[in-house]
Amino acid sequence: MTVCERKGNSKPTVRQQSRSSRESSRSMSIRLCKMFSLHVLLCLLSVSVHVVSGMYDPDEVLDLPGMSFKPNYRQWSGYLKASSGKFLHYWFVTSQRDPLKDPVLLWLNGGPGCSSLDGFLSENGAFHVNDNGATLYENEFSWNKIANVLYLESPAGVGYSYSDDQKYKTDDDEVADNNYLALQSFFTKFPNFTQNEFFIFGESYGGIYAPTLSLRVATGGQLKVNFKGFAVGNGISSFALNDQSLIYFGNYHGLFGEQLWKGLNDNCCQNGVCNFYNNSKESCSDMVSHAFNIVYSSGLNTYALYLDCAGGVTSQRAMKHLFINFRKHWKANQLVGNTPSVQGVPPCINSTAQINWLNRGDVRKALHIPDVLPPWDICSDDVGNQYHTIYETVKDVYVKLLALGLRALVYNGDTDMACNFLGDQWFVEQLGQKASTRYQHWIYDNQIAGFYQQFGNITFLTVKGAGHMVPQWAPGPSLQMLQSFLSNKPY
């Protein structure tokens, strides 16, 4: 019996039994929807989601344009019901090893407002898009080598996810609530996976998404799964620590020079204690604004300091997409925030191939995307610009999760300036967990791959030479890291 077949029901039988009711419901939906304006045609998809509830065969992806190889895994793409009128697009890929026994892993990209399909097609997915935007190639270091991976486009308004009312103003708690509802919908569709170990991963602003959702999964009571832990990659965990540490990161990477560093110390520090985050002195604010403009607006690749900026210096823009504007307490909020941004595309990142492929008509059809939805983009300004941050820090959330015995991993590529390693290291060290190992290196392919330290059931880990998107820029080490975390073995 395969992963997606129930006892006594082969796949053709399931489809035969459901075909008549699906066609009847869709016919009725078409008649009803014709009475309304074009955008209300989205109700067709809403009806479809309810009709196939509990049956996942209609979502199966049987053929993908541009795929010249035969996959040794199964995949589904469709919609999960969240709160009233909200539907989140998912893409689920089974493990290449042992789907029935391997863990289920939820992957969430950040923003807020960026699509997790970027994580699939650029980072840790089973395949990636060639530069021509037409063909696919296998990812040798795909995370579905050892896990069943669920990619969720969240919140509504991101990627191919949508809301019937097309209103996309939201906040941290509402996103966590909707992701929780979407998970309930997912495990209703795929009940065979409820006993597999389950983990939640978040990247960038996923540093807020992952722990807040994890707390709901661990304590909500409505989702009966084998939840084991969560991980955050180059995530925002504390706005204060991220800003504070960035000044040190920038200086010790040679970005500021002696004069600016002296000015920062003279104006922001007193008795050896520095406040670069919310210092009330205008002279300090001016110095910090200058420093942040060097980091974010001078033409450096903020996501990977030692990599070139795709498109050159002139294409670099303020950080509005993969993470929220961290400088909201500073004049830099005006200086940087008013810089024009490239619509839907993070600065220094070339996502043309992924965008072109996902917007092909035959690809949308294969992924079961309704024609009435707008084109896919990597990030949504509509979502990002209206987003309200509730959690300045998720320290209390972590403390609650660790007290429940859940495993946690905070990992950082050490060349990222968007969510730098030092801020996340400070964050983990300040959780009040006793260190259970010394700070030490870990090895990949007979080379030092980074450093890590264990604090009870949470680990802080760096990936040497990687930037914001660790699975993209250090694919081999990231897969080994994943294996160690999932199996709860030393790094």
Question: Can you walk me through this structure?
Answer:
It holds the Pfam family Peptidase_S10. One of its GO terms (molecular function) is serine-type carboxypeptidase activity. It is a single chain. With 491 residues, the chain is an alpha/beta fold. The chain has a domain at 239-337: Rossmann fold (3-Layer(aba) Sandwich). The chain contains 16 helices and 15 strands. It has helices spanning 11-33, 43-51, 117-124, 172-189, 206-219, 239-252, 257-268, 282-297, 332-337, 352-358, 361-366, 381-386, 395-403, 421-429, 470-473, 475-487; strands spanning 75-81, 86-93, 104-108, 127-129, 136-138, 148-152, 162-163, 197-203, 226-233, 269-270, 273-274, 407-413, 440-444, 447-455, 458-463. The strands form 3 sheets. Strands 1, 2, 3, 6, 7, 8, 9, 12, 13, 14 and 15 form an 11-stranded mixed beta sheet that branches. It starts with 10 loop residues before the first helix and ends with a helix.
Structural topology:
Elements: H1 11-33, H2 43-51, E1 75-81, E2 86-93, E3 104-108, H3 117-124, E4 127-129, E5 136-138, E6 148-152, E7 162-163, H4 172-189, E8 197-203, H5 206-219, E9 226-233, H6 239-252, H7 257-268, E10 269-270, E11 273-274, H8 282-297, H9 332-337, H10 352-358, H11 361-366, H12 381-386, H13 395-403, E12 407-413, H14 421-429, E13 440-444, E14 447-455, E15 458-463, H15 470-473, H16 475-487
Parallel strand pairs: 3-6, 3-8, 8-9, 9-12, 12-15
Antiparallel strand pairs: 1-2, 2-6, 2-7, 4-5, 10-11, 13-14, 14-15
Helix pairs in contact: 1-2, 4-5, 5-13, 6-14, 7-8
